[in-house]
TrEMBL record:
Signal peptide residue numbers: none
Listed Basic and acidic residues bias regions: 163-172
MATH domain mapped to chain residues: 1-130
Protein name: MATH domain-containing protein
Region Disordered, residue ranges: 154-190
Biased composition (Acidic residues): 177-190
Highest taxon of source: Eukaryota
């Protein structure tokens, strides 16, 4: 579990990235920011949502790596008596698809409305609860294939799907649990 506290949140106009949190020798980073999408009621109108996700920095220098993760993306309330807003996703993070998230996490105006209880002094706090095993890693060495001495990847059974469990929100997450592959380029510098 790790957190990302964002000040001056009402002024955010592009995705922000948290500092990395290291788990099993791999850096994990929270991404949060606004996204504008066509309205579900009127295609000529756009709606602004909070987009939240998690990026796995991967195993540097590995020919291939992958790890399956069960992730709870949370927006923490100001009042501890109020429950956090939580969306769960299941993702297979791997070398070429290392991001999982939700584009339509919450309406932007609802996040900014103090009556909903998630913002105070123009600041919000995100929390990620991640359950994952160490990554499965394959390294190339000379002419032969070498497997790194790490635990085997726990792959979900075939009936488990990635993305959120409620079907009306599955359109926000692609089949790999990713909301936008373009953000991966920004994070390849980890």
């Amino acid at each position: 579990m790790f957190r990302f506290h964002v000040k001056n949140f009402s002024k955010v106009n592009m995705p922000l990235w948290s500092a990395p949190c290291w788990l099993h020798g791999v850096p994990w980073v929270i991404k949060a920011g606004p996204i504008t999408v066509p309205s579900s009621e009127n295609e000529n109108k756009e709606e602004k949502f909070l987009s939240v996700g998690l990026r796995c920095g991967g195993v540097w220098g590995a020919a291939f790596w992958a790890c399956y993760g069960i992730v709870d993306l949370c927006l923490l309330p100001v009042n501890r008596k109020q429950a956090p807003y939580v969306v769960g996703i299941e993702c297979l993070f791997q070398k070429n698809v290392c991001f999982g998230g939700v584009n339509r996490f919450m309406l932007w105006e609802n996040v900014l409305n103090p009556h909903h209880g998630y913002i105070e002094d123009d600041a919000v706090t995100f929390e990620v609860r991640l359950r994952t095993a160490p990554p499965y890693v394959i390294n190339w060495s000379s002419d032969r294939l070498m497997r790194a001495p790490m635990q085997t990847l726990a792959v979900p059974p075939p009936h488990v799907t990635s993305g959120r469990k409620d079907e009306d929100r599955n359109s926000d997450v692609n089949e790999n649990g990713s909301d936008d592959d373009s953000d991966d380029e920004d994070m390849n510098k980890l």
